[in-house]
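Sharing a chain and its predicted structure for anyone who wants a worked example. Both blocks are below, sequence first, tokens second.
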Amino acid sequence: MILLGIDPGLALVGYGVIRMDGGKITPLEYGCIETLAGTPLPERLGMIDREMGKLIDEYKPDQMAFEELFYYRNKTTIISVAQARGVEILAGVKRGLPIYEFTPPQIKQAITGYGRADKLQIQRSIQALLGLTELPKPDDAADGLAVAMTLAFSQRFREDYRME
């Protein structure tokens, strides 16, 4: 089974693609979709849509998961990130993927065993769990992998996390 994890964003959309075969998890790809500040929002959203589509079409995931948005102090930022997240979710919906979501503490708990882990703890845990030779970077890409791995670890309970 191929799983796609997304760390939603507008400037950087982190993603991680993993294969789950029985109890074994293998990383296939991770990275970021980047849009440039100063580019009009509709163009940035269009770029995210195209790049998400390419990613999904290339790896053909069976399921897709997102990190839930957390509160931003800047209302303008949360609105634009929420718009981008909608585009990112829609890319999976258009391709018929089941969509799941996890809170940041759920992801941290699944990956490190501690719901308040910091970024470095998450990166080190991902490196160890996936047998990577170096820390997954940038943070957004590591978060995408963490979301995909949380989906893999939650397969027994997956209906509990399905987006409604």
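Comments welcome. The chain has five helices and five strands.
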